[in-house]
Amino acid sequence: MYAASPLSSGLTVLTAPTDGTASITAMVFVGAGSRYEEQSERGISHFLEHMFFKGGKRYPTTRDVSGAIDSVGGSFNAFTGKEYAGYYVKVAAEQVELACDVLGDMLLQPAFPTEDIEKERGVIIEEERMYQDTPMYRVGWDFEQLLYGDHPLGWDTIGTEEVIRSVTREDFLQHKKRFYTPDNAVVVFAGKVTEEQAGTLAQRFFGSLAGKKQRVFSPLERFGEERVFLRTKKTEQAHLVLGVPGVSALDDAYFAQRILGVILGGNMSSRMFLNIRDARGLCYYISTEVDNYLDAGALSTRAGVDQTRLFEAITAIREEYVHCAEGGVTEEEVAKTKAYLKGGITLSLEDSEERAHFFGRQQLLYPKVRDIDEFFAAIDAVTKEDVDALAKEILTPEALRLVVIGQEKDEAKLRALL
């Protein structure tokens, strides 16, 4: 299923081959997410992600980087989360050397041209404003800030305009030196690839990565104390998130929480969808999500509703939580959810990009990498009693946090609903 081995530099190379595909995804994971930032650096991790694509030594401009991959019909992108950043190129298997050449050049030998930094400031500020103007996104950011408080886990990854406008080339070089090191990175090859081929490619294109990680993140010691946040804004819909603190990715109840989230609102046969959207017509979109970080987690339900039905929707979601905590789930719900999760994972792992992400993220963050059989066994090991116990533990009225973006002005009325 997968194999992992270190280069002489200490850089881990993970290979996840699969039959029946003609593609290879080369992906680099780095423990350089936004929760590693300090207040004066908010947004530098995300900004740095943008700057890597401005070119290196062999591909010195954005046009050279994109042109090389476009010329063989490949795709490439990057992402910055709270606990890690990732960069990948996906190509036909015979083009994997080109993919590694581009990826290695931009990550190991970035130019960070001053003129491109100035241009990219405007791009990122417009990206930030786009999210600010999109309540479906903004409400999620506000919920994390409410739940985690003034802690890096509660900060959005895009950062502050103050930092975006002031960060310098030297800041990028220091941030790269601090985190982009062989002991804090994983190179993953997934798809039509062998372990021997992956090791050779990794040594050739990424073997010169050097240094030692210079900072660890601050642990979350407590959740935020505020329970309600209202952002009054002229919107067509009211957008809300109602949720609770959950368990971390390393908690024994991790898989029980995933199952609980799906039962509550993870698909079109979930309780939230059937009881609130379908039966009552309260909203167009509604979903329950679980977030799991290394030392914290959350379970939350988000929805967009008519302004006049906001309080009805909040009450209905709260009632579903209470009903689940008091009455538990059914054996049938647990069995169906296990099949749903395993089916979704099976389908996603046919894609070399998803396969690289599945294994690489585990290798970077967790003490143990589960292969697919082990992952499915952990899902199957969850019992109805496990899910019931977790629901009773976390879905309590006093744990509820609520965020609303819309035309409502009375925060006290919202507090009364909890």
Any descriptors?
single chain, 418 residues, alpha+beta, Cytochrome Bc1 Complex, Chain A, domain 1, 6-stranded mixed sheet, 5-stranded mixed sheet
Give the structure's gist in a few sentences.
With 418 residues, the protein is an alpha+beta fold. It has helices at 44-52, 62-70, 96-108, 114-132, 135-148, 161-166, 169-179, 195-206, 254-265, 271-278, 310-327, 331-348, 352-365, 372-380, 384-394, 411-417, and strands at 3-6, 12-17, 23-30, 75-80, 85-92, 185-191, 228-232, 237-245, 283-292, 297-306, 401-406. The radius of gyration is 22 Å and the shape is globular.
Name the helix and strand elements from N-terminus to C-terminus, one letter apiece: EEEHHEEHHHHHEHEEHHEEHHHHHEH
- Biggest pleated-sheet summary: 6 strands, mixed
CATH architecture of the largest domain: 2-Layer Sandwich
| CATH T-level topology of the largest domain | Cytochrome Bc1 Complex, Chain A, domain 1
Apparent shape: globular
Helix content: 40-55%
How many beta-strand elements? Answer: 11
Structural class: alpha+beta
Calculate the terminal CA-CA distance, rounded to whole Å.
47 Å
Estimate the mean pLDDT confidence: 97
The fourth-level CATH homologous superfamily of the largest domain is Metalloenzyme, LuxS/M16 peptidase-like
Given as residue ranges, the uncertain stretches (5+ residues, pLDDT < 50) are: none
Round the Cα radius of gyration to an integer and report it: 22 Å
Output the number of helix runs. Answer: 16
In CATH's first tier, which class of the largest domain applies?
A: Alpha Beta
Instruction: Tell me the β content.
Output: 15-25%
